Amino acid sequence: MKYTYTLLFIIILNNCLSQPSENKHEKTKSTNENTVIKLSEDSLHSTFLIEIPIKVPLHYHNWHTENIVVVQGKALMKLGSDTLTIRKGDQVTILKGAPHEVIKVISKKSLKVYSIQSPKFDPADRYLVEPR
Hints:
single chain; mainly beta; six-stranded antiparallel sheet; 1 helix; 13% helix; 52% strand
C-alpha cells in the first residue's frame, strides 16, 4: 500500500508539471545555474522541483529531513560517507544533519528531482560545508 501512495504522488506531480500553467508554481530561487521551483508548501512540508545541470555544493540541514525522487538524469551524490549513483526512478532519504551534495551530473540531460522536505523548508537551515 505504501508503494501505491508513492507512485500516485509521483504521477500527480508529473501530471501537474506537464500541464501549461499561468504562474501556477512559484519560482523561488535560481543560483549557480540550478533552478528551484516551489510546487507546494504548508507548515509541515515544502515540495520543490529542482533542476541541476552541474552540481550542488556539500551542505546539511539541522531542522528538516529531505526526500528526493529523481525524475530525469543521472549523477554522483555524496550522502554522509557514501557515494551513490542516482538515476531516474531512485528515491533517497536525507536525514537531518546528514552532509550531502551532488558531486556532478553524469548524464547529457540535467538532473531533475522532486525534493520533499519536512517540516517546511527554511533557507536559514542550509549550512554549507567548507572543503578541507
